[in-house]
Amino acid sequence: MSTPIGTDRAPSPAGHYAQAVRAGDFVYVSGQVPRTPDGGYTPADVAAETRLTLGNLAAIAEAAGGGLGDVVKVTAYLTRQEYFGEFNAAYAECFGDHRPARTTVVAGLREVKVEVDAVLHLPVLPVLPADGSRPPGGHRCKLPDEHEP
User: Fold this and answer.
1) Which class for 109: exposed (0-12), middle (13-18), buried (19 or more C-beta within 10 A)?
2) With the C-alpha atoms ordered 137, 138, 143, 149, is the resulting torsion angle positive or negative?
3) Is the pTM of this model over 0.85?
4) CA-CA distance, 16 to 45, in Å (whole number)?
5) Cα atoms in the Cβ-side hemisphere of radius 13 Å centred on 28
6) For 115-140, what is each residue's pLDDT tens digit?
7) Cβ atoms 75, 43 nearer than 8 A
C-alpha cells in the first residue's frame, strides 16, 4: 500500500506522477528541479539551482512529516560534469553534517542544470491495542499523553 504526498510549497508534477509516495517506512520523492512553487524557472548558477532544488525536496519532506535529516539516499543529475564542484558545495551547505548515500549522474536535462530525487526513512509508529498493552519484552517508554499531570 502506498500513499501519495504533495505540497503547494514545491512545484506541481509536470506529468502523471506524485511529488512523493510513502510506502511503509520509506518516502520516495520524485525528481525535483529548480522551479519555484508556481512552476517558474529563472536560469541561475549551479549553486543557486541546487539550493532551490533542495528547498523543494525539504518542503516535500516536511509534508511527509520529516526533513532533510531523514534523507537516506539521493540521486543527483547534472547537465555537465564541470558543475560537480559547485553542486557539491551547495549540497553540503544544505545538508550540513548529515551525509545520505548519493549517486551523481551527468544527464541530459531540459532547461535546468540540476535535478534531485531522494528516499527518506520515516518509521511508521506502531498501532497499539486500545487497552495500551504492549507485547512482552523490550523497553516501554510512556507516550506524551500517558504521563501523569
Assistant:
1) middle
2) positive
3) no
4) 29
5) 8
6) 999 999 999 866 556 665 554 443 34
7) no
